[in-house]
Amino acid sequence: xxxxxAHLPIDMLSxxxxxxxxxxxxxxxEEHVESCPECRAQLDSLGRVVGRLRSxxxxxxxxxxxxxxxxxxxxxxxxxGFLGKLDGRLGRLPVQPGILVTFALIFCFAxxxxxxAQGLEDRHQRTIPIILTxxxxxxxxxxxxxxxxxxxxxxxxxxxDWQLVPWSGEGAGxxxx
Length: 177
Description:
two-stranded antiparallel ribbon
């Protein structure tokens, strides 16, 4: 087994040294290393490097570095309020800028649509509905052409056609009942 394709990858050899492999995987590595001189040499070389690294003295970072990190954390706190919290949450998301632009456009479109619908509803509420019963036909164009109702008059069915008659305001709730 001296071909390159049959050699074990270096990360598998490293995991073997760190005892991160399952028992079955470790047995495969041991069996391969016994029969492959190149992988055995690679494993021995890695073992020496790991041994030297473990023998090094651990050093603490400089105190200035710790103070600098704490200062940066204190300065990076998000603003108070809704926008600060929203920015803090969105800033931590791994999102591409194009997605944020799309979200902003959808939000703006929804706000415009809501405002437009609200305006239509307000306009609809300001109009006075004409309530007709099924027994009375709608006024014809000829009967109301040129006739302008005054505040003290109303349209009334005269048997054959609609007529403009004086009105005192009584009986206004009858049409709605």
